[in-house]
Amino acid sequence: MTGDVTNLRQFRKRQARTAKEKQAEQNRLTFGRTKAKKSVTKALNEKTAKTLDHGRLDRAGDDGAPDRNKP
C-alpha cells in the first residue's frame, strides 16, 4: 500500500505549466516572425511614411495662418 505521496497542488501547477508551455510553443510557431522579417516590415513602413510626408500639401487658412487642426 505504500506508494509515492503526491502533493496535488504541485501536480496541478506542474500540469498547468506544461500546458502553458505547449500553448506558447504553438503560438511561437503560428505567430512568430524572424528578426529579418521584422526589420523588412519596419523599413517598408518607414519608407511609406516618408513618401506620404513628402507628398503632403500644407494648407493655410484664409488669413495665411497655419492650420491648427494639423496633427
From TrEMBL:
Residues 44-71 have a biased composition (Basic and acidic residues). Pfam families: DUF4169. Residues 1-71 are annotated as: Disordered. It comes from the Bacteria. This is DUF4169 family protein. The lineage of its organism: Bacteria, Pseudomonadati, Pseudomonadota, Alphaproteobacteria, Hyphomicrobiales.
